[in-house]
Specification:
Layout: H1 5-9, H2 26-35, E1 43-49, H3 52-57, E2 58-59, E3 62-63, E4 68-72, H4 77-93, E5 101-108, H5 109-114, H6 117-125, E6 131-136, H7 176-181, E7 187-191, H8 198-209, E8 214-219, H9 223-226, H10 233-242, E9 249-252, E10 255-258, H11 269-272, H12 287-308
Helix pairs in contact: 2-8, 4-6
Length: 309
C-alpha cells in the first residue's frame, strides 16, 4: 500500500472544527486521522455510540460531521451500523444507490469494551462490511472518569479511588483486540499516535477497504482522566509503545503481525510516571505495585510475540 504523508494530511477534514471536545482530546485526534483513510470521492456513514465524542460533536441543530451521521445508544452501535450496511447492500442490489459508501462506527472504551460488547460481537461475527473503531481512553470519561474494563490496573478513577483503602483499580485491563480477533474477521489492528500518525493512517485505510468486518483499537489519551501535561500527548503515546504497554500489531485473516518492536524496551514506570492517575504508585512502599504492572506488561508482550511468530 502506497503511503504519502503530505497527501494524506492534505485530505479534506471530515470532522469540522468548532466542536466542544476538550483541548488536546485524544478522541478527536483519533477520529480525524482514521477518516483520512477514506479515499477522496467515497462517501461514508458514521456511527457513534453515546460518548464524549457524541455529546460534543452533535448539538442539535449543529453537527461537526461532514458525512452522514448516526448517533446510537451506548449498547447498540455495532448493531445499528450493521443494519445500515445491510440496507445499503439491499438498495445497491436493486439499483437505487450508485454511490460508494463506507461504514465506520466510533465508540469509547465504555461503549465498546463493556456496554456495547454484545452488539459489537454480533456485527463482527456476521462479518458486516464495516469498521468499528474504539478510541480507548481507559475509563468512562464523559460521565466522570469511572473505571471501565479498559482501565489499567492500579489507575485512580472516581469509582476506584487510590487512598488508604485501595490502590486504584485492582484488575488488569481487558484484551479486547484479542477477543475481536477470536471472531475470525478479516482485519483487526491496534494503534495509537506515533510515527507522525503513519501507523494509524495505514491501518485505517486497510480497515476501511478490507472487504468484511474490521476493528481498530486506538489508544486515545484523555488529559482530564489521565492527568498529564496536555501538550505531551504524543510523548505519552510513544512511551506506551516503547514500554510495550500498547503494542502495535495487526491480525490479517487470522495471521498475527507485530508492526513494531522497540530497540530498547523501556520500563513501564516511564509510561506511568507522567500521569497523575498513577501518582500514588510512586509513594514509598508501593514499589511492589509497579513491579506487578511490569510483570503483567512483560507477560502480555511475550505472549504477543509468540503469537506473531
Amino acid at each position: 500500500m502506497d503511503y504519502n504523508f503530505k497527501e494524506t494530511m492534505n485530505k479534506p477534514e471530515r470532522l469540522a472544527p468548532g466542536h466542544r471536545m476538550c483541548a488536546g482530546c485524544g478522541g478527536t485526534i483519533a477520529v480525524r486521522n482514521v477518516l483520512r483513510g477514506l479515499h477522496e470521492g467515497d462517501k461514508a456513514v458514521i456511527g457513534n455510540a453515546t460518548s464524549c465524542l457524541e455529546v460534543s460533536t452533535l448539538m442539535y441543530p449543529y453537527s461537526a460531521w461532514e458525512d452522514s451521521y448516526v448517533h446510537t445508544a451506548f449498547a447498540n452501535a455495532g448493531a445499528s451500523m450493521a443494519g445500515v450496511e445491510g440496507a445499503y447492500k439491499a438498495l445497491k442490489k436493486r439499483g437505487k444507490i450508485d454511490d460508494t459508501y463506507k461504514f465506520i462506527t466510533f465508540g469509547g472504551d465504555g461503549g465498546t469494551y463493556d456496554i456495547g460488547l454484545q452488539s459489537l460481537s454480533g456485527a463482527m461475527e456476521r462479518n458486516h462490511d464495516m469498521v468499528y473503531v474504539c478510541y480507548d481512553n481507559g475509563a468512562y470519561m464523559n460521565t466522570g472518569i469511572q473505571r471501565s474494563s479498559a482501565t489499567p490496573m492500579y489507575a485512580d478513577t472516581t469509582t476506584t479511588p487510590a487512598g488508604t483503602v485501595g490502590h486504584g483499580k485492582e484488575q488488569n485491563r481487558k484484551d479486547l483486540a484479542a477477543i475481536i480477533a477470536a471472531h475470525n474477521i478479516p482485519y483487526v489492528a491496534q494503534t495509537t499516535f506515533v510515527q507522525n500518525f503513519k501507523d494509524l493512517h495505514i491501518k485505517a485505510e486497510k480497515a476501511i477497504y478490507t472487504p468484511g468486518a474490521a476493528f481498530l483499537n486506538v489508544m486515545a489519551p484523555c488529559p482530564r482522566g489521565w492527568r498529564y501535561n496536555t501538550p505531551d500527548i504524543m510523548e505519552i503515546c510513544k512511551l506506551a509503545v516503547d514500554t510495550c504497554y500498547w503494542p502495535l500489531f495487526e491480525v490479517i485473516d487470522g495471521e498475527w503481525v507485530l508492526n513494531y518492536e522497540p530497540k530498547k524496551k523501556l520500563p513501564i514506570e516511564d509510561f506511568l510516571r507522567p500521569q497523575g492517575r498513577f501518582k500514588h504508585l510512586f509513594e514509598p512502599g508501593n514499589e511492589e505495585l509497579v513491579a506487578r504492572i511490569q510483570e503483567e506488561t512483560d507477560r502480555r508482550w511475550e505472549a504477543l510475540k509468540a503469537r506473531c511468530k
